[in-house]
Amino acid sequence: MSAASRIPVVIIGAGPVGVTTALLLARHGVRSLVLERHGDVYPLPRAVVVDDEVRRILQSVGVHEEFAALARPAHGLRLLDARRRVIAEFPRSPHGHHGYPQTSMFDQPELERLLREALARRPECELRGGVGVVSVTQDTDGPDGSTGPVRVAFRRDGSDEEEHVLADAVLGCDGAGSLTRDTIGAVWEDLHFEESWRVIDVRTSRQVRTWEGAEQICCPTRPATFMRVGEDRYRWEFRLPGHEPLDGPEGLDRLRELVAPWVDLPADGSSGDDFEVIRQAQYTFRARLADRWRRGRVFLLGDAAHLTPPFVGQGLCAGLRDARNLTWKLALVLQQGADDRLLDIYERERKPHVRHMIRIAVAVGWAMTGGQDRAAAIRRAVVGAACRIPGVTAAVGRDLSPALAAGPLVRRRPRLVGRVLAGTLCPQPWVTVDGGRVRLDDVLGDSFAVLTAVPPTPQVTAVATALGARTIRVDDLGDDGGLAAWLARGRADAVLLRPDRVVLDTVNTGTDDFTGTAAWAPLLHTARRPAEGRPAPLPRSTTR
């Protein structure tokens, strides 16, 4: 690569968020260069849980079948008191809204290898490992007021020579210590949670007492988290000071004491040959949000933009949602000439969502460590009582990820009855197309789509045409009526879906239409080209 070659997108960081971002862009035909300081996948465990929405994202980049082979569905989350009595249980279904188990355990290095193998198959993507980014600069004062190209300077390992590349956009997926965040002048907003925890990953063939879900021990003196990650892989997290060792003779005694509620270790001062500590690391769990996620054509994603305590397993999930939200918008701007203001909506949509998820995680952390006073005991009792009300725990689990707020790409309408669908993700059932069973997203493709329970009106057809959207009659999909029932619950005859499968607008053909959407639709597709997608063919009766 020459000193000043140009590429549409440079992605800094080749963790799961960075590589998934590159793969999502590739599906829209956008080329990218991924720069990563490590030469290979970091081999030790980190993230261990994703939800069904994220598995749907993995489907969109083509690794869902391989991931299913290494993932382990979990039963949910239990809050336990210091004596391991259940305070509350939040079950997670093996058949979630998005067509996958609601909670899946996995080993992050294995996921990263799957993603990198997929990346290697994409001619639109290039990954360069062993590269340290030195600086990111951009010209935001073009003669016409437009943003100029972004210059990324980097050095290869072992070299003092500085190389440069120009990009139309730079995406910072470079983690909590993000250079990109410093580049755009973003600072952290403190959401008031900071604790030091020890994370211990273990491989053992010993009998472990587990219910196949995550356990959170709500104890002010010894809070802990436990979960089964794989067939013989387990994780414990304990709030411990960084100076307290868990190796050596004294450390092993302490480790035996900590894990005793779940597994019995030998009393001879050893951990046994069949109890291998793969990794133990000290982490400071923090709750933070960057005050800005964009400047010009430089963006923040994942831990570069937000940090969440791990108590509800949403750290990696949030980063992959960032990727899904931003990439289709960026592709429209770079490939189809959409208005650059479309990119402002990324932060406007994602930041409130992330803030909500962080608050949930902080609340669980607070429940685990929330004091020893009489009021704390009362609070825990109230939580337990509330969660014994029929339907409460199921509702909490179902609505963990909130709808996107109303905005330019989420058109909310007043509803006297029925669930508001705009801003939510459409379900993904199995459907029948040309005699074969496929997942709904394989029919929808990568662009806009209209799902309708009634014949589309001319106005609906006009909006669909302007957006390059497929129009699909749900009655022809053979999904046992699930999509029609979903529309009925939202009092909608039809919905307009964005490329990320979020409901942009709903319509009841008897009383309203997509008029509001039609007013700004041309801004999205000023020079419409088909996305890659390769969707499954539509039933012939529904192709318009």
Description:
- It contains 14 helices and 25 strands.
- By secondary structure, it is α+β, with helices and mostly antiparallel strands.
- Strands 1, 2, 8, 9, 10, 11, 17 and 18 form an eight-stranded mixed beta sheet that branches. Strands 6-5-13-14-15-12-16-19 form an eight-stranded mixed beta sheet.
- Strand 13 and strand 14 form a beta hairpin.
- Helix 1 runs parallel beside helix 4 (108-120) and helix 7 runs antiparallel to helix 8 (344-369).
- The chain is globular, with a radius of gyration of 24 Å.
- The two termini are 45 Å apart.
- The relative contact order is 0.12.
Shape: globular
Which spans of ≥5 residues are poorly predicted at pLDDT below 50? 526-531, 538-544
Span of the ends, CA to CA: 45 Å
**What structural category do the secondary elements indicate?**
alpha+beta
Fraction in beta strands: 25-35%
Q: What's the alpha carbon Rg, rounded to whole Å?
A: 24 Å
Number of strands: 25
Helix segment tally: 14
Provide the helix percentage. 25-40%
Mean pLDDT: 87
In this structure, how is the largest beta sheet organized?
8 strands, mixed
